[in-house]
Amino acid sequence: MRFLFLCLLITILSCQNQTNTLKNTSFILPINGCPGCFKKVVSFCQESPQSREFDYFITGYTSDKDMRLRIERDWTCSETYHLDYKNRLLRIKPEISEIYPTIIYINQQGLLNSVTLNSKNIDRILDSLSKGHSLN
After folding, report:
1. 131 — phi, psi (to 5°)?
2. Full-prediction pTM beyond 0.85?
3. What is the rounded distance in angstroms from the CA atom of residue 30 to the CA atom of residue 33?
């Protein structure tokens, strides 16, 4: 469990020296959580020009068929999607929610932060990210 979190942290930190702060951001998507929130993040990924700046880790994995139905495209060839086949990310508490998407990012001080997306903040945050603003 901690190994997977460490790998995620290394992935994020390896991008820290880049000038684009959006590259320091990753989404953790529990596939069996809030369907509306999941769909909004997937739509953001498919439609926003900024979406290529992020990595998406899908957890709560059940089957390829379920994944294709949820994402509504051939997700297997996307380089921005990573599947957590063993659902290890769901074991990281309290940072990772089993229901809502979580964004993990490096703040301006270089510290690892997370924010859980929910029905109250998801539209505002995704809109801000689509405009190229960072979470800092």
Report:
1. -90, 0
2. no
3. 5
Q: Quote the Cα angle for 72-25-122, to 5°.
A: 60
Question: What is the crossing angle of helices 122-130 and 35-47, to 10°?
Answer: 10
Two structure tokens written together for 107? 């703040």
Element (H, E) at 81: strand 81-83
Could you please report the per-residue DSSP string of 12-60?
HHHTTTSS-GGGGEEEEEETTS-HHHHHHHHHHHHH-GGGGGSEEEEES
pLDDT in tens, 52-111: 778 888 888 778 777 777 766 555 445 677 888 888 887 776 778 888 999 988 888 888
Query: What span, in angstroms and rounded, lies between the C-alpha atoms of 58 and 38?
Result: 10
Rounded Cα distance, 127 and 40, in Å = 11
